[in-house]
Amino acid sequence: MPHLHHGAPGSFGSVLFSAMLVFTALMYLRGWVSLRSNFLGRIPAWRALGFLVGLFLIWVALASPFSTLDHELLTVHMLKHLLLMTIAPPLIWLGEPVRAWSQGLPRFVRGAIWVAFCWPTIIRIGKVLARPEVCWVGAAATLVGWHIPQVFTLAMHSVGWHFFEQSSFLVTGLLFWWPVVQPWPRIPKSDLSMILYLFFATLPCDILSGFLVFCDRVVYPVYWSSLHLFGFTALEDQQCAAALMWTCVTVVYLIAATIFAARLLSPHRSEEQSILQFESERGAVRTDPQRMEAV
Length: 295
Prior knowledge:
The structure is a single chain. The chain is mostly helical. The chain has helices at residues 12-38, 45-62, 74-94, 97-104, 107-117, 120-129, 132-145, 149-156, 159-181, 191-214, 234-264, 267-294. The protein has one domain (12-294). It is 76% helix and 0% strand. Helix 3 crosses helix 9 and helix 7 packs parallel to helix 10. The chain is globular and about 60 Å long.
């Protein structure tokens, strides 16, 4: 069965997705500028930059010329998954997009979203999805499930399944990083629990990448017939992809765990920051309805 190059650059889907990302960035910047002008609850510039970099990485993974190479190299395919699950999501949440969009989106859109998210059913679903155990299981199941050879092959040969695969990586990546980054509105989590959360999250990745690195056969036959770039054989490509995933996930999770460990070892400083942060957010919540009417 021939490869299908999903979302090729210049295709309608790619152009439409790029336009959506540009619109998302513009609405974010509009809200970010509005928050800066009000001073209270402003988002630091480095957070805004992180959000924009996160959007750019999503574009690289899904709509750039680079994105089509995942049908030629498993290493590129794995790098796209890392961008969507491991690198872009924490950058997105660091930008505190909920607060920025609450100011940047048109008033009627904000009103409609506010009404929708006030429904009891939506609130209950949101609380369930925000639980760390749900976020962890969702990310682990997505990672392992899509790397089952039969499921992997299905996604490579179907436009619809390929879209669903990449969407699930991004969505579960955002869910996974929600309790770690804790964007606004924040729900305080124990630093120790987050360290354990990150540690156990490395286990599915370690098992999968270790299997692919040390396996003496090509697990995904779909790459046998592809044009391998840089002189890689199918087996070398598989080992390189697994090593990339192993290294990248370990480094990113280690950085996050180190930040939590540093906070854990500085309890007085963390407590002071939490109090100041709570007061700032309480003031921002009180002024949000006024801002929404003013913009």
